[in-house]
Write a structure and sequence with these properties.
46% of the residues lie in helices and 15% in strands. Helix 10 packs across helix 11, helix 10 runs parallel beside helix 12 and helix 11 packs across helix 12.
Length: 317
């Protein structure tokens, strides 16, 4: 990536962020992380209480980028075929035909994913990792770019099935939306009072441009010293006393890919240690399995991660 290409990338990135923030008020960091995840070809898990804008974020993001979107409401009786699709025999044609499920979209909102049974949750494993769906022995690729934006409510745990570590590891980031500040909440009320709707949001990009931005982000330069820093962070999570299971190599790959997008979104054609440092928590925290002692002591994965990575040497410019 050249400096000029990085500047253009940053301009287009800011245009999308500004458009999304017409409806997602006071959540600039969340919007940017969601867009970074998509342009890094990752998936996003949003863990928060109902009504804070998780669905609106997914819809406004897909609308702003000119991408197709779908919504899957996960419930205990949802079947894997309700997600991936099903093969149907057509008697008139004397042949089987595959009917794609809602997972065949660019931005898929998996609402309350932890309410589905483990069998249905596992239907998302292949498509999140490989971007294909296998039904009756045949593989069907999903559209690219492809982002699963999943939500789960951390408060109401009745009738839920916690996501297994294998599925959590497939999410590039886990974030919390949080409540808006008073000024942002006032603007939300004004928008509703004036009759503004998400359906009125105009696209400021298209699938060709998004695909080009994804490809461009992959060419952002990353020095060997920064790669060593990433490896040091991932290794530190495996050696911490409060961790039973540290980050997998997929965590390091996610940190590198998202840092590249963050650098380009700031008009730079190279990654700095600051890019990596800003993404440590959303990219790595959900990949840790805490030790029984840490859990008994009331520690969170964010606290344990911060302590584990504090001593990792940061490369100097």
């Amino acid at each position: 990536m050249t400096p000029e290409q990085a500047q253009y990338f940053a301009q287009r990135f800011e245009a999308v962020v500004s458009n999304v923030e017409r409806f997602i008020q006071g959540k600039d960091d969340v919007v940017r992380l969601a867009l970074i995840a998509l342009l890094a070809e990752g998936h996003l898990l949003m863990e928060d209480v109902p009504g804070v804008g998780k669905t609106s974020l997914a819809r406004s993001l897909s609308a702003s980028l000119g991408l197709s979107g779908s919504r899957i409401q996960f419930t205990p009786d949802l079947l894997p075929s309700d997600v991936t699709g099903v093969t149907v025999f057509h008697q008139s044609k004397d042949s089987f035909e595959f009917h794609p499920g809602p997972v065949f979209a660019n931005v898929v909102l998996a609402d309350e994913i932890n309410r589905a049974s483990p069998k249905t949750q596992s239907a998302m494993l292949e498509v999140m990792a490989e971007r294909t769906v296998t039904v009756d022995g045949r593989s069907h690729p999903v559209p690219r770019p492809f982002l699963v934006l999943a939500t789960q409510n951390p408060v109401d745990m009745d009738g839920t099935y916690p996501l297994p570590e294998a599925q959590l590891d497939r999410f590039m980031m886990r974030i919390s939306v949080g409540y808006p500040n008073p000024a942002a909440e006032t603007q939300i009320l004004k928008n509703a009072h004036e009759g503004r709707r998400l359906e009125d949001l105009k696209a400021v990009s298209n699938i060709e441009e998004v695909t080009g931005m994804i490809k461009a982000a992959g060419s952002v330069h990353i020095a060997d010293s920064v790669l060593t820093y990433i490896v040091g962070l991932v290794t530190a999570t495996r050696n911490s006393q409060g961790v039973r299971l540290g980050s997998s190599p997929r965590g390091g790959l996610a940190l590198m890919a998202s840092a590249r997008v963050r650098a380009a979104s700031r008009g730079r054609h190279y990654v700095t240690p600051e890019d990596v440092g800003a993404l440590i928590q959303p990219v790595l925290a959900h990949r840790l399995v805490l030790s029984p002692e840490a859990i008994a002591g009331g520690a969170t994965s964010e606290q344990v991660l911060a302590e584990a990575t504090r001593g990792v040497p940061v490369p100097q410019a």
